[in-house]
Amino acid sequence: MTSRSDFHETKDQLTLWLLLCKLKEYGFKTRRLKLQKLIYLSDVFGTILMKKPTGYTFRVYKHGPFSKEIYLDIERLVSLDFVKAKQIGIWEPNEDRSFEYEIEEKEVSKANVLLHRREFDVIKRPVEIAVQAAGYLNARGIQKLVYGEPNFIEAKKKGFGSIIDPSYAFAVEFREMSKRISSEEFGLDLNEEEVLWLYVNFIKTLQVKENNGIA
Questions:
Q1: DSSP classification of residue 119
Q2: Chain segment 165-202, per-residue pLDDT in tens
């Protein structure tokens, strides 16, 4: 785990906070495992949009990309009463046993103020798209989705505990390739957000192929 400055630690905590705000807005719940994967996707998506929202270091673990820093940050937000953690009494197979996290109602208006500030655009958009693309999934569903994410697959080849390249090289390559092919073959000038949604569909296709034993 790399050391973060106070500024970057606060920025990462803010990203978690805004993610929980978006989950609440869309009516979705999250536990630890799902929270990890949503932040991971936010970072990948942010890379396609030219600015990664967090400084988290993700490694390859059994349940997909994992960052210990996220656990530390969410517990910090809970201790500050920005987030409430509800202990889950009944554990179900294929669900992570822990807490369900939700932004406090009194914090929603504060988060909305930040969401409308221009300097938070680099955080807001990739986080919102991650929630739109995968917020409805349970822990098992989003875990399977991320198993099809090429940057994770590449790191997984190096073994358990390997660091996932924070530059998300495949996502960058996908962005450039998609824009080039769209321009040369179809005369279309795709923007980064359009490429991002192509990437979302791409990893969902990879997930289906993997589940069917095709890939």
A1: G
A2: 999 999 999 999 999 999 999 999 999 999 999 999 99
Does residue 1 lie within any of the structural domains? no
At which residue do the structure tokens 């994770």 appear?
152
CA gap 53, 88 in Å, rounded: 29
Q: Helical H runs in the chain?
A: 6-26, 32-48, 68-79, 105-115, 121-134, 139-147, 150-156, 169-186, 192-211
User: Considering only CA atoms, which of 130, 150, 141, 119 is closest in space to residue 196?
Assistant: 130
In degrees to the nearest 10, what's the CA dihedral of 59, 147, 198, 186? Answer: 100
Say if 131 falls within a structural domain. yes
The answer to whether 207 touches 144, Cβ cutoff 8 Å, is yes
The predicted-structure confidence for 113-168, as pLDDT tens digits, reads as follows 766 777 677 788 999 999 999 999 999 999 999 999 999 999 999 999 999 999 99
Classify residue 168: in a domain, yes or no: yes
Q: Which value, to the nearest 10 degrees, does the dihedral of the CA atoms of residues 173, 2, 69, 60 take? A: 50
The residue among 69, 49, 47 whose CA lies nearest residue 163 is 69
Number of domains in the chain: 1
In a domain, 29, yes or no: yes
Q: Which of 159, 36, 33, 165 lies closest to 98, judged by CA? A: 33
pLDDT at 209 over 70: no
**CA neighbor of 45 nearest in space, from 197, 207, 206:** 197
Domain span at residue 78? 6-211
Residues 6+ apart with CB under 8 A from 2: 55, 57
